[in-house]
Amino acid sequence: MKDVESQFSSMLPKKSSSACVWDRHFSLLLTGLCVLVYLPVVWNGYIWDDDHHIYANAVLTGWDGLWRIWSDVHSLPQYYPLVHTTFWLEYRLWGTWPTGYHLVNVLLHAASGCLIARIGDRLHLKGSRLAAFLFVLHPVCVESVAWASERKNVLSLFFALAAFVPLYRSLLRFSWRHFVIGSVLFLAAMGSKTVACSLPAVLVLVIWWRYPELWWRRWRRLLMQLTPLFLIGAGLGLLTVHLEAVHVGAGQDRFLQLSWIERVLTAMNAVAFYLRKLCWPVELAFFYPRWNPAALGWPQWGSLLSLVVAAGILLALPEKRGRGALVALLCYCGILVPALGFFKVYPHRYSFVADHFQYHAMVVFCLFAAHVFTFLTGYLRLRQVVGIALAMGCLTILGCLTWSRVPVFRNPYTLYTDTLRKNPDCWAAWNNLGIWFWHRGNIDEAIQCFSRVLAIRADHHRARIQLARLYAQQQRCRLAQRELLRILRLRNLQLGLDALSLVGDTFRICKAFPQALKAYRMVLLHQPGNGQVWLASGDVFLELREYPRAIQAYQQALKHTPVAMHSAIRKRLRQARALLNTSSP
Protein backbone atom coordinates (compact mmCIF):
# COMPACT_ATOMS: atom_id res chain seq x y z
CA MET A 1 0.00 0.00 0.00
CA LYS A 2 2.86 2.37 0.75
CA ASP A 3 4.22 1.73 -2.76
CA VAL A 4 0.90 2.87 -4.17
CA GLU A 5 0.94 5.95 -1.98
CA SER A 6 4.49 6.76 -3.03
CA GLN A 7 3.54 6.32 -6.67
CA PHE A 8 0.73 8.86 -6.46
CA SER A 9 2.55 11.30 -4.24
CA SER A 10 5.50 11.28 -6.66
CA MET A 11 3.13 12.55 -9.35
CA LEU A 12 2.66 15.78 -7.44
CA PRO A 13 4.60 18.60 -9.15
CA LYS A 14 7.82 19.72 -7.50
CA LYS A 15 8.63 23.38 -7.95
CA SER A 16 12.06 24.75 -8.73
CA SER A 17 13.32 28.09 -7.46
CA SER A 18 12.72 29.67 -10.87
CA ALA A 19 9.12 28.43 -10.80
CA CYS A 20 8.64 30.01 -7.37
CA VAL A 21 9.97 33.32 -8.71
CA TRP A 22 7.57 33.08 -11.64
CA ASP A 23 4.72 32.35 -9.20
CA ARG A 24 5.55 35.49 -7.23
CA HIS A 25 5.64 37.59 -10.39
CA PHE A 26 2.39 36.05 -11.57
CA SER A 27 0.71 36.73 -8.21
CA LEU A 28 1.85 40.36 -8.28
CA LEU A 29 0.60 40.78 -11.86
CA LEU A 30 -2.75 39.17 -11.06
CA THR A 31 -3.22 41.28 -7.92
CA GLY A 32 -2.24 44.44 -9.79
CA LEU A 33 -4.76 43.78 -12.56
CA CYS A 34 -7.45 42.99 -9.99
CA VAL A 35 -6.83 46.25 -8.14
CA LEU A 36 -6.78 48.13 -11.46
CA VAL A 37 -10.15 46.89 -12.75
CA TYR A 38 -11.73 47.34 -9.31
CA LEU A 39 -10.17 50.78 -8.74
CA PRO A 40 -13.55 52.60 -9.01
CA VAL A 41 -14.59 50.76 -5.83
CA VAL A 42 -12.69 53.35 -3.74
CA TRP A 43 -15.51 55.81 -4.50
CA ASN A 44 -18.25 53.32 -3.64
CA GLY A 45 -20.31 53.66 -0.49
CA TYR A 46 -22.87 51.38 1.12
CA ILE A 47 -25.88 49.73 -0.50
CA TRP A 48 -28.55 47.18 0.39
CA ASP A 49 -28.10 45.31 3.71
CA ASP A 50 -24.81 47.07 4.50
CA ASP A 51 -26.55 48.85 7.37
CA HIS A 52 -27.45 45.54 9.06
CA HIS A 53 -23.97 44.12 8.54
CA ILE A 54 -21.69 47.12 9.06
CA TYR A 55 -22.51 50.77 9.68
CA ALA A 56 -25.67 50.30 11.77
CA ASN A 57 -24.68 46.99 13.35
CA ALA A 58 -24.61 47.51 17.13
CA VAL A 59 -22.57 44.32 17.58
CA LEU A 60 -19.55 45.98 15.94
CA THR A 61 -19.51 49.05 18.19
CA GLY A 62 -18.93 47.46 21.61
CA TRP A 63 -15.97 45.52 22.94
CA ASP A 64 -18.35 42.74 23.98
CA GLY A 65 -19.44 42.41 20.37
CA LEU A 66 -16.79 39.82 19.58
CA TRP A 67 -18.22 37.48 22.22
CA ARG A 68 -21.77 38.02 20.96
CA ILE A 69 -20.71 37.36 17.36
CA TRP A 70 -19.63 33.83 18.26
CA SER A 71 -22.02 32.97 21.11
CA ASP A 72 -25.39 34.34 19.95
CA VAL A 73 -26.69 33.03 16.63
CA HIS A 74 -29.48 35.64 16.65
CA SER A 75 -27.19 38.66 17.14
CA LEU A 76 -26.31 38.75 13.43
CA PRO A 77 -28.37 39.01 10.23
CA GLN A 78 -26.86 35.62 9.31
CA TYR A 79 -24.71 33.43 11.54
CA TYR A 80 -21.38 33.74 9.73
CA PRO A 81 -19.20 34.60 12.73
CA LEU A 82 -15.85 34.81 10.96
CA VAL A 83 -17.20 37.40 8.52
CA HIS A 84 -18.45 39.62 11.32
CA THR A 85 -15.20 39.08 13.22
CA THR A 86 -13.37 40.68 10.29
CA PHE A 87 -15.95 43.49 10.29
CA TRP A 88 -15.45 43.94 14.05
CA LEU A 89 -11.68 44.19 13.64
CA GLU A 90 -11.95 46.59 10.71
CA TYR A 91 -14.42 48.72 12.65
CA ARG A 92 -11.64 49.21 15.22
CA LEU A 93 -9.30 50.34 12.41
CA TRP A 94 -11.40 52.64 10.22
CA GLY A 95 -14.90 52.75 11.68
CA THR A 96 -17.60 53.01 9.03
CA TRP A 97 -15.29 54.20 6.23
CA PRO A 98 -16.62 52.11 3.31
CA THR A 99 -13.45 52.13 1.19
CA GLY A 100 -11.60 50.03 3.75
CA TYR A 101 -14.18 47.24 3.58
CA HIS A 102 -14.22 47.36 -0.22
CA LEU A 103 -10.43 47.15 -0.55
CA VAL A 104 -10.29 44.09 1.71
CA ASN A 105 -12.84 42.41 -0.56
CA VAL A 106 -10.73 43.23 -3.63
CA LEU A 107 -7.57 41.80 -2.06
CA LEU A 108 -9.39 38.62 -1.00
CA HIS A 109 -10.71 38.26 -4.55
CA ALA A 110 -7.18 38.59 -5.96
CA ALA A 111 -5.87 36.06 -3.42
CA SER A 112 -8.55 33.59 -4.52
CA GLY A 113 -7.37 34.03 -8.10
CA CYS A 114 -3.82 33.11 -7.06
CA LEU A 115 -5.13 30.01 -5.28
CA ILE A 116 -7.08 28.98 -8.40
CA ALA A 117 -3.85 28.98 -10.40
CA ARG A 118 -2.17 26.87 -7.72
CA ILE A 119 -5.03 24.35 -7.69
CA GLY A 120 -4.97 24.15 -11.49
CA ASP A 121 -1.25 23.35 -11.38
CA ARG A 122 -1.82 20.75 -8.68
CA LEU A 123 -4.46 19.04 -10.85
CA HIS A 124 -2.23 19.24 -13.97
CA LEU A 125 -4.83 21.34 -15.79
CA LYS A 126 -3.82 23.28 -18.87
CA GLY A 127 -4.22 27.06 -18.69
CA SER A 128 -4.46 27.31 -14.90
CA ARG A 129 -3.12 30.87 -14.95
CA LEU A 130 -5.57 31.81 -17.68
CA ALA A 131 -8.31 30.45 -15.39
CA ALA A 132 -7.08 32.72 -12.59
CA PHE A 133 -7.20 35.79 -14.85
CA LEU A 134 -10.62 34.74 -16.15
CA PHE A 135 -11.98 34.50 -12.61
CA VAL A 136 -10.45 37.75 -11.34
CA LEU A 137 -11.57 39.82 -14.35
CA HIS A 138 -15.03 38.31 -14.93
CA PRO A 139 -17.83 40.89 -14.41
CA VAL A 140 -20.15 38.33 -12.75
CA CYS A 141 -17.83 38.57 -9.73
CA VAL A 142 -18.47 42.30 -9.30
CA GLU A 143 -21.62 41.77 -7.23
CA SER A 144 -19.61 39.78 -4.68
CA VAL A 145 -16.51 41.99 -4.63
CA ALA A 146 -18.00 45.51 -4.87
CA TRP A 147 -20.74 44.82 -2.31
CA ALA A 148 -19.35 45.15 1.21
CA SER A 149 -21.90 42.77 2.77
CA GLU A 150 -20.77 40.01 0.41
CA ARG A 151 -17.56 39.67 2.39
CA LYS A 152 -19.09 36.29 3.25
CA ASN A 153 -18.71 35.20 -0.39
CA VAL A 154 -15.12 36.32 -0.99
CA LEU A 155 -13.88 35.24 2.45
CA SER A 156 -15.47 31.79 2.34
CA LEU A 157 -14.15 31.13 -1.16
CA PHE A 158 -10.64 32.18 -0.14
CA PHE A 159 -10.61 29.75 2.78
CA ALA A 160 -12.24 26.95 0.74
CA LEU A 161 -9.60 27.25 -1.99
CA ALA A 162 -6.85 27.42 0.63
CA ALA A 163 -8.22 24.24 2.23
CA PHE A 164 -8.36 22.34 -1.06
CA VAL A 165 -4.63 21.68 -1.58
CA PRO A 166 -3.73 20.38 1.92
CA LEU A 167 -6.85 18.20 2.03
CA TYR A 168 -6.14 16.92 -1.47
CA ARG A 169 -2.57 16.03 -0.51
CA SER A 170 -3.71 14.30 2.67
CA LEU A 171 -6.11 12.16 0.64
CA LEU A 172 -3.38 11.08 -1.76
CA ARG A 173 -0.92 10.31 1.03
CA PHE A 174 -2.29 10.77 4.50
CA SER A 175 -0.54 13.36 6.63
CA TRP A 176 -1.90 14.64 9.92
CA ARG A 177 -0.25 17.98 9.25
CA HIS A 178 -2.00 18.50 5.92
CA PHE A 179 -5.29 17.10 7.21
CA VAL A 180 -5.37 19.38 10.26
CA ILE A 181 -4.38 22.47 8.26
CA GLY A 182 -7.00 21.69 5.61
CA SER A 183 -9.69 20.98 8.21
CA VAL A 184 -9.03 24.26 10.05
CA LEU A 185 -9.23 26.17 6.77
CA PHE A 186 -12.45 24.34 5.90
CA LEU A 187 -13.93 25.35 9.27
CA ALA A 188 -12.94 28.94 8.52
CA ALA A 189 -14.70 28.71 5.16
CA MET A 190 -17.84 27.33 6.83
CA GLY A 191 -17.68 30.10 9.43
CA SER A 192 -17.70 32.60 6.58
CA LYS A 193 -20.49 31.09 4.48
CA THR A 194 -21.88 27.58 4.57
CA VAL A 195 -22.00 27.24 0.79
CA ALA A 196 -18.46 25.87 1.28
CA CYS A 197 -20.06 22.64 2.58
CA SER A 198 -19.65 21.18 -0.92
CA LEU A 199 -15.83 21.03 -0.62
CA PRO A 200 -15.61 17.41 0.68
CA ALA A 201 -17.82 16.19 -2.18
CA VAL A 202 -15.67 18.11 -4.67
CA LEU A 203 -12.57 16.40 -3.27
CA VAL A 204 -14.17 12.96 -3.68
CA LEU A 205 -15.04 13.68 -7.32
CA VAL A 206 -11.59 15.08 -8.10
CA ILE A 207 -9.84 12.01 -6.65
CA TRP A 208 -12.14 9.74 -8.67
CA TRP A 209 -11.28 11.71 -11.81
CA ARG A 210 -7.52 12.09 -11.38
CA TYR A 211 -6.67 8.75 -9.76
CA PRO A 212 -9.44 6.19 -10.39
CA GLU A 213 -7.15 3.30 -9.41
CA LEU A 214 -6.46 4.91 -6.05
CA TRP A 215 -10.16 5.60 -5.63
CA TRP A 216 -11.23 1.99 -6.20
CA ARG A 217 -8.51 0.63 -3.91
CA ARG A 218 -9.02 3.04 -1.04
CA TRP A 219 -12.52 4.50 -1.38
CA ARG A 220 -13.58 3.38 2.11
CA ARG A 221 -10.53 4.97 3.69
CA LEU A 222 -10.96 8.17 1.67
CA LEU A 223 -14.58 8.52 2.73
CA MET A 224 -13.67 7.84 6.37
CA GLN A 225 -11.10 10.62 6.23
CA LEU A 226 -13.69 13.03 4.87
CA THR A 227 -16.56 11.93 7.14
CA PRO A 228 -15.81 14.59 9.83
CA LEU A 229 -15.87 17.28 7.14
CA PHE A 230 -19.12 15.96 5.69
CA LEU A 231 -20.69 16.01 9.17
CA ILE A 232 -19.46 19.55 9.87
CA GLY A 233 -20.73 20.74 6.50
CA ALA A 234 -24.13 19.08 6.95
CA GLY A 235 -24.55 20.36 10.52
CA LEU A 236 -23.66 23.98 9.82
CA GLY A 237 -25.57 23.88 6.55
CA LEU A 238 -28.74 22.74 8.32
CA LEU A 239 -28.22 25.48 10.92
CA THR A 240 -28.14 28.03 8.11
CA VAL A 241 -31.31 26.57 6.58
CA HIS A 242 -33.03 26.76 9.99
CA LEU A 243 -31.94 30.35 10.65
CA GLU A 244 -32.90 31.39 7.12
CA ALA A 245 -36.41 30.07 7.75
CA VAL A 246 -36.87 31.25 11.35
CA HIS A 247 -34.54 34.20 11.93
CA VAL A 248 -34.38 35.76 8.45
CA GLY A 249 -38.02 35.04 7.64
CA ALA A 250 -37.93 32.76 4.60
CA GLY A 251 -40.00 30.03 6.25
CA GLN A 252 -43.38 31.75 6.10
CA ASP A 253 -42.85 33.84 2.96
CA ARG A 254 -45.61 33.01 0.49
CA PHE A 255 -43.28 33.69 -2.44
CA LEU A 256 -41.14 30.72 -1.40
CA GLN A 257 -43.90 28.11 -1.04
CA LEU A 258 -43.12 25.87 -4.03
CA SER A 259 -43.85 22.25 -4.85
CA TRP A 260 -40.93 19.90 -5.40
CA ILE A 261 -41.63 19.76 -9.14
CA GLU A 262 -41.48 23.55 -9.27
CA ARG A 263 -38.21 23.47 -7.33
CA VAL A 264 -36.63 21.02 -9.79
CA LEU A 265 -37.74 23.09 -12.80
CA THR A 266 -36.55 26.29 -11.11
CA ALA A 267 -33.16 24.68 -10.49
CA MET A 268 -32.77 23.65 -14.13
CA ASN A 269 -33.76 27.12 -15.32
CA ALA A 270 -31.27 28.69 -12.90
CA VAL A 271 -28.36 26.48 -14.03
CA ALA A 272 -29.01 27.39 -17.67
CA PHE A 273 -29.27 31.07 -16.73
CA TYR A 274 -25.97 31.03 -14.84
CA LEU A 275 -24.10 29.35 -17.67
CA ARG A 276 -25.46 31.92 -20.14
CA LYS A 277 -24.27 34.78 -17.95
CA LEU A 278 -20.81 33.26 -17.60
CA CYS A 279 -20.46 32.79 -21.35
CA TRP A 280 -22.10 36.10 -22.31
CA PRO A 281 -21.88 38.51 -19.34
CA VAL A 282 -24.02 41.39 -20.59
CA GLU A 283 -27.10 43.02 -19.07
CA LEU A 284 -26.01 41.98 -15.58
CA ALA A 285 -28.48 43.20 -12.95
CA PHE A 286 -28.77 43.31 -9.18
CA PHE A 287 -32.36 42.01 -9.34
CA TYR A 288 -33.18 39.85 -12.35
CA PRO A 289 -36.82 39.30 -13.38
CA ARG A 290 -38.43 36.65 -11.20
CA TRP A 291 -40.04 33.99 -13.33
CA ASN A 292 -43.24 32.20 -12.36
CA PRO A 293 -42.36 28.62 -11.31
CA ALA A 294 -45.84 27.43 -12.30
CA ALA A 295 -45.20 28.58 -15.88
CA LEU A 296 -42.08 26.42 -16.28
CA GLY A 297 -42.53 23.21 -18.23
CA TRP A 298 -41.18 21.22 -21.15
CA PRO A 299 -38.07 23.35 -21.87
CA GLN A 300 -36.86 22.80 -18.29
CA TRP A 301 -37.69 19.08 -18.39
CA GLY A 302 -35.74 18.96 -21.66
CA SER A 303 -32.78 20.62 -19.96
CA LEU A 304 -32.90 18.04 -17.17
CA LEU A 305 -33.07 15.17 -19.67
CA SER A 306 -30.18 16.66 -21.68
CA LEU A 307 -28.13 16.97 -18.50
CA VAL A 308 -28.72 13.32 -17.58
CA VAL A 309 -27.93 12.12 -21.13
CA ALA A 310 -24.76 14.23 -21.28
CA ALA A 311 -23.63 12.86 -17.91
CA GLY A 312 -24.22 9.30 -19.13
CA ILE A 313 -22.26 9.86 -22.33
CA LEU A 314 -19.34 11.44 -20.47
CA LEU A 315 -19.34 8.59 -17.96
CA ALA A 316 -19.25 6.02 -20.77
CA LEU A 317 -16.21 7.58 -22.42
CA PRO A 318 -13.16 5.42 -21.71
CA GLU A 319 -10.63 8.21 -21.42
CA LYS A 320 -9.97 10.55 -18.52
CA ARG A 321 -11.24 13.53 -20.54
CA GLY A 322 -14.82 12.33 -20.40
CA ARG A 323 -14.56 11.79 -16.67
CA GLY A 324 -13.01 15.24 -16.26
CA ALA A 325 -15.87 16.96 -18.10
CA LEU A 326 -18.39 14.98 -16.05
CA VAL A 327 -16.66 15.95 -12.79
CA ALA A 328 -16.62 19.61 -13.86
CA LEU A 329 -20.36 19.46 -14.58
CA LEU A 330 -21.15 17.71 -11.28
CA CYS A 331 -18.96 20.09 -9.26
CA TYR A 332 -20.47 23.17 -10.88
CA CYS A 333 -24.06 22.05 -10.32
CA GLY A 334 -23.30 20.65 -6.87
CA ILE A 335 -21.78 23.89 -5.60
CA LEU A 336 -24.85 25.73 -6.88
CA VAL A 337 -27.33 23.43 -5.08
CA PRO A 338 -27.86 25.64 -1.97
CA ALA A 339 -28.99 28.53 -4.20
CA LEU A 340 -31.02 26.63 -6.79
CA GLY A 341 -34.33 26.72 -4.94
CA PHE A 342 -34.29 23.38 -3.14
CA PHE A 343 -33.99 25.29 0.14
CA LYS A 344 -35.89 28.40 1.15
CA VAL A 345 -33.58 31.37 0.64
CA TYR A 346 -34.96 34.81 1.45
CA PRO A 347 -33.55 36.60 -1.65
CA HIS A 348 -35.60 34.24 -3.82
CA ARG A 349 -38.65 36.34 -3.00
CA TYR A 350 -37.10 38.96 -5.31
CA SER A 351 -35.48 36.70 -7.92
CA PHE A 352 -34.47 33.07 -8.20
CA VAL A 353 -31.05 34.03 -9.57
CA ALA A 354 -28.33 36.48 -8.58
CA ASP A 355 -24.73 36.94 -9.68
CA HIS A 356 -23.34 36.39 -6.20
CA PHE A 357 -25.06 32.99 -5.95
CA GLN A 358 -22.60 31.49 -8.45
CA TYR A 359 -19.39 33.12 -7.19
CA HIS A 360 -18.08 29.83 -5.76
CA ALA A 361 -19.26 27.65 -8.64
CA MET A 362 -17.68 29.80 -11.33
CA VAL A 363 -14.22 28.64 -10.16
CA VAL A 364 -15.05 25.29 -11.78
CA PHE A 365 -16.24 27.03 -14.94
CA CYS A 366 -13.07 29.13 -15.21
CA LEU A 367 -10.74 26.13 -14.73
CA PHE A 368 -12.69 24.05 -17.25
CA ALA A 369 -12.99 26.84 -19.84
CA ALA A 370 -9.29 27.71 -19.63
CA HIS A 371 -8.31 24.04 -19.91
CA VAL A 372 -10.53 23.49 -22.97
CA PHE A 373 -9.29 26.70 -24.63
CA THR A 374 -5.63 25.75 -24.11
CA PHE A 375 -6.27 22.20 -25.31
CA LEU A 376 -8.05 23.39 -28.46
CA THR A 377 -5.32 25.86 -29.38
CA GLY A 378 -2.84 22.98 -29.24
CA TYR A 379 -5.15 20.50 -30.98
CA LEU A 380 -5.81 22.94 -33.83
CA ARG A 381 -2.08 23.67 -33.98
CA LEU A 382 -2.59 27.41 -33.70
CA ARG A 383 0.49 29.47 -33.29
CA GLN A 384 1.21 30.41 -29.70
CA VAL A 385 0.93 34.09 -30.50
CA VAL A 386 -2.59 33.53 -31.88
CA GLY A 387 -3.70 31.75 -28.72
CA ILE A 388 -2.20 34.46 -26.54
CA ALA A 389 -3.88 37.17 -28.63
CA LEU A 390 -7.27 35.47 -28.38
CA ALA A 391 -6.91 35.02 -24.62
CA MET A 392 -5.76 38.60 -24.07
CA GLY A 393 -8.58 39.93 -26.22
CA CYS A 394 -11.13 38.00 -24.16
CA LEU A 395 -9.57 39.11 -20.87
CA THR A 396 -9.45 42.74 -22.02
CA ILE A 397 -13.16 42.70 -22.83
CA LEU A 398 -13.97 41.11 -19.47
CA GLY A 399 -11.79 43.63 -17.64
CA CYS A 400 -13.52 46.55 -19.36
CA LEU A 401 -16.94 45.12 -18.49
CA THR A 402 -15.86 44.75 -14.87
CA TRP A 403 -14.47 48.30 -14.74
CA SER A 404 -17.77 49.68 -16.08
CA ARG A 405 -19.88 47.55 -13.70
CA VAL A 406 -18.12 48.51 -10.45
CA PRO A 407 -19.53 52.12 -10.28
CA VAL A 408 -23.07 50.69 -10.43
CA PHE A 409 -22.58 49.70 -6.76
CA ARG A 410 -21.57 53.22 -5.69
CA ASN A 411 -24.81 53.99 -3.81
CA PRO A 412 -28.46 52.88 -3.75
CA TYR A 413 -29.43 55.40 -6.44
CA THR A 414 -26.90 54.13 -9.01
CA LEU A 415 -27.67 50.51 -8.12
CA TYR A 416 -31.45 50.68 -8.37
CA THR A 417 -31.62 52.97 -11.40
CA ASP A 418 -29.34 50.52 -13.24
CA THR A 419 -31.57 47.65 -12.09
CA LEU A 420 -34.74 49.40 -13.25
CA ARG A 421 -33.21 50.15 -16.63
CA LYS A 422 -32.83 46.39 -17.16
CA ASN A 423 -35.81 45.20 -15.12
CA PRO A 424 -38.40 48.02 -15.05
CA ASP A 425 -41.02 45.92 -13.23
CA CYS A 426 -38.79 45.16 -10.24
CA TRP A 427 -40.93 46.21 -7.27
CA ALA A 428 -38.04 45.72 -4.81
CA ALA A 429 -35.85 48.21 -6.68
CA TRP A 430 -38.69 50.77 -6.83
CA ASN A 431 -39.34 50.32 -3.11
CA ASN A 432 -35.69 50.67 -2.08
CA LEU A 433 -35.22 53.66 -4.37
CA GLY A 434 -38.28 55.27 -2.78
CA ILE A 435 -36.77 54.79 0.69
CA TRP A 436 -33.52 56.34 -0.55
CA PHE A 437 -35.38 59.41 -1.87
CA TRP A 438 -37.42 59.67 1.35
CA HIS A 439 -34.34 59.69 3.58
CA ARG A 440 -32.96 62.54 1.51
CA GLY A 441 -36.13 64.62 1.68
CA ASN A 442 -37.12 64.14 -1.98
CA ILE A 443 -40.76 63.53 -1.12
CA ASP A 444 -42.25 63.85 -4.61
CA GLU A 445 -39.77 61.37 -6.11
CA ALA A 446 -40.38 58.97 -3.22
CA ILE A 447 -44.15 59.16 -3.76
CA GLN A 448 -43.66 58.29 -7.42
CA CYS A 449 -41.52 55.27 -6.49
CA PHE A 450 -43.96 53.88 -3.92
CA SER A 451 -46.87 54.46 -6.29
CA ARG A 452 -45.01 52.42 -8.89
CA VAL A 453 -44.49 49.63 -6.33
CA LEU A 454 -48.23 49.46 -5.69
CA ALA A 455 -48.95 49.47 -9.42
CA ILE A 456 -46.79 46.35 -9.75
CA ARG A 457 -47.74 44.72 -6.42
CA ALA A 458 -51.00 45.98 -4.96
CA ASP A 459 -50.50 43.75 -1.89
CA HIS A 460 -47.22 45.42 -0.86
CA HIS A 461 -48.68 46.88 2.33
CA ARG A 462 -45.44 48.32 3.68
CA ALA A 463 -45.07 50.41 0.53
CA ARG A 464 -48.64 51.59 1.08
CA ILE A 465 -47.76 52.64 4.64
CA GLN A 466 -44.71 54.54 3.38
CA LEU A 467 -46.87 56.25 0.75
CA ALA A 468 -49.44 57.24 3.40
CA ARG A 469 -46.71 58.65 5.66
CA LEU A 470 -45.37 60.75 2.79
CA TYR A 471 -48.86 62.07 2.03
CA ALA A 472 -49.27 62.93 5.72
CA GLN A 473 -45.89 64.67 5.67
CA GLN A 474 -47.19 66.85 2.83
CA GLN A 475 -50.45 67.48 4.75
CA ARG A 476 -52.39 65.56 2.09
CA CYS A 477 -54.32 63.78 4.80
CA ARG A 478 -57.24 62.65 2.68
CA LEU A 479 -54.93 60.65 0.42
CA ALA A 480 -53.04 59.32 3.43
CA GLN A 481 -56.23 58.14 5.14
CA ARG A 482 -57.42 56.49 1.93
CA GLU A 483 -54.28 54.35 1.79
CA LEU A 484 -54.34 53.54 5.51
CA LEU A 485 -58.00 52.51 5.55
CA ARG A 486 -57.23 49.91 2.89
CA ILE A 487 -54.68 48.42 5.27
CA LEU A 488 -56.96 48.40 8.32
CA ARG A 489 -59.57 46.46 6.35
CA LEU A 490 -57.19 43.48 6.31
CA ARG A 491 -57.98 42.64 9.95
CA ASN A 492 -54.93 40.39 10.22
CA LEU A 493 -51.25 40.51 11.02
CA GLN A 494 -49.84 40.29 7.48
CA LEU A 495 -47.98 43.54 8.07
CA GLY A 496 -46.44 42.77 11.41
CA LEU A 497 -47.13 44.67 14.61
CA ASP A 498 -44.40 47.25 13.98
CA ALA A 499 -46.07 48.23 10.72
CA LEU A 500 -49.48 48.54 12.41
CA SER A 501 -47.88 50.87 14.92
CA LEU A 502 -46.70 53.05 12.01
CA VAL A 503 -50.25 53.03 10.66
CA GLY A 504 -51.48 54.41 13.97
CA ASP A 505 -48.75 57.07 14.03
CA THR A 506 -49.69 58.21 10.52
CA PHE A 507 -53.39 58.45 11.43
CA ARG A 508 -52.39 60.52 14.45
CA ILE A 509 -50.44 62.95 12.26
CA CYS A 510 -53.57 63.34 10.12
CA LYS A 511 -55.68 64.00 13.26
CA ALA A 512 -57.70 60.84 12.50
CA PHE A 513 -57.70 59.82 16.15
CA PRO A 514 -60.36 57.05 16.13
CA GLN A 515 -58.53 55.21 13.33
CA ALA A 516 -55.22 55.69 15.16
CA LEU A 517 -56.67 54.13 18.31
CA LYS A 518 -58.00 51.22 16.27
CA ALA A 519 -54.51 50.49 14.93
CA TYR A 520 -52.96 50.81 18.40
CA ARG A 521 -55.56 48.45 19.88
CA MET A 522 -54.69 45.83 17.26
CA VAL A 523 -51.05 46.05 18.33
CA LEU A 524 -51.78 45.95 22.07
CA LEU A 525 -54.06 42.97 21.61
CA HIS A 526 -50.98 40.91 20.72
CA GLN A 527 -48.31 42.96 22.52
CA PRO A 528 -49.80 44.22 25.79
CA GLY A 529 -46.31 45.14 26.98
CA ASN A 530 -45.51 47.54 24.13
CA GLY A 531 -44.73 50.72 26.06
CA GLN A 532 -44.29 52.90 22.97
CA VAL A 533 -47.80 52.10 21.77
CA TRP A 534 -49.25 52.75 25.25
CA LEU A 535 -47.52 56.13 25.21
CA ALA A 536 -48.87 56.97 21.74
CA SER A 537 -52.36 55.87 22.84
CA GLY A 538 -52.14 58.17 25.85
CA ASP A 539 -51.28 61.11 23.57
CA VAL A 540 -54.31 60.33 21.40
CA PHE A 541 -56.63 60.13 24.43
CA LEU A 542 -55.19 63.44 25.60
CA GLU A 543 -56.06 65.01 22.24
CA LEU A 544 -59.59 63.57 22.50
CA ARG A 545 -59.89 64.97 26.06
CA GLU A 546 -60.53 61.49 27.43
CA TYR A 547 -58.33 62.19 30.43
CA PRO A 548 -59.07 59.08 32.56
CA ARG A 549 -58.13 56.79 29.68
CA ALA A 550 -55.05 58.92 28.96
CA ILE A 551 -53.95 58.50 32.59
CA GLN A 552 -54.40 54.73 32.36
CA ALA A 553 -52.39 54.58 29.13
CA TYR A 554 -49.53 56.64 30.61
CA GLN A 555 -49.46 54.42 33.69
CA GLN A 556 -49.12 51.36 31.45
CA ALA A 557 -46.38 53.15 29.50
CA LEU A 558 -44.43 53.68 32.75
CA LYS A 559 -44.50 49.94 33.38
CA HIS A 560 -43.23 48.93 29.94
CA THR A 561 -40.71 51.59 28.89
CA PRO A 562 -37.04 52.16 29.78
CA VAL A 563 -36.26 54.29 32.84
CA ALA A 564 -34.78 56.99 30.60
CA MET A 565 -38.27 57.75 29.25
CA HIS A 566 -40.03 57.93 32.61
CA SER A 567 -39.38 61.63 33.19
CA ALA A 568 -41.16 62.65 29.98
CA ILE A 569 -44.02 60.21 30.60
CA ARG A 570 -44.55 61.48 34.18
CA LYS A 571 -44.72 65.02 32.83
CA ARG A 572 -47.54 64.01 30.46
CA LEU A 573 -49.21 62.07 33.27
CA ARG A 574 -49.22 65.17 35.50
CA GLN A 575 -50.64 67.18 32.60
CA ALA A 576 -53.47 64.67 32.09
CA ARG A 577 -54.33 64.69 35.82
CA ALA A 578 -54.32 68.48 35.91
CA LEU A 579 -56.64 68.66 32.91
CA LEU A 580 -58.90 66.06 34.51
CA ASN A 581 -59.13 68.12 37.71
CA THR A 582 -59.89 71.37 35.86
CA SER A 583 -62.54 69.71 33.70
CA SER A 584 -64.31 68.12 36.68
CA PRO A 585 -67.38 70.10 37.98
Blueprint (SSEs and pairs):
Layout: H1 2-9, H2 17-37, H3 50-55, H4 58-61, H5 65-71, H6 81-94, H7 98-122, H8 128-137, H9 142-145, H10 151-172, H11 176-192, H12 199-210, H13 212-248, H14 260-279, H15 298-316, H16 320-336, H17 362-379, H18 384-405, H19 412-422, H20 427-439, H21 443-456, H22 461-473, H23 477-488, H24 497-509, H25 513-526, H26 531-543, H27 547-559, H28 566-583
Structure description:
By secondary structure, the chain is mainly α. The protein has a domain at 22-409. It has 28 helices and no strands. The chain has helices spanning 2-9, 17-37, 50-55, 58-61, 65-71, 81-94, 98-122, 128-137, 142-145, 151-172, 176-192, 199-210, 212-248, 260-279, 298-316, 320-336, 362-379, 384-405, 412-422, 427-439, 443-456, 461-473, 477-488, 497-509, 513-526, 531-543, 547-559, 566-583. The model is unreliable at 1-13 (pLDDT under 50).
Could you give a short description of this structure?
With 585 residues, this protein is mostly helical. Helix content is 71%, strand content 0%.
H/E series: HHHHHHHHHHHHHHHHHHHHHHHHHHHH
Number of strands: 0
Q: Decide which structural class fits the backbone.
A: mainly alpha
What composes the largest sheet?
A: none
Helix amount, in percent? Answer: over 70%
Name the overall outline.
elongated
Q: Regions with pLDDT < 50 over 5+ consecutive residues?
A: 1-13
Cα end-to-end separation: 104 Å
Determine the number of helices (DSSP H or I, runs of at least 4 residues). 28
Strand proportion? under 5%
What gyration radius follows from the Cα positions, in whole Å?
A: 29 Å
- Chain oligomer state: single chain
The overall pLDDT average reads 84
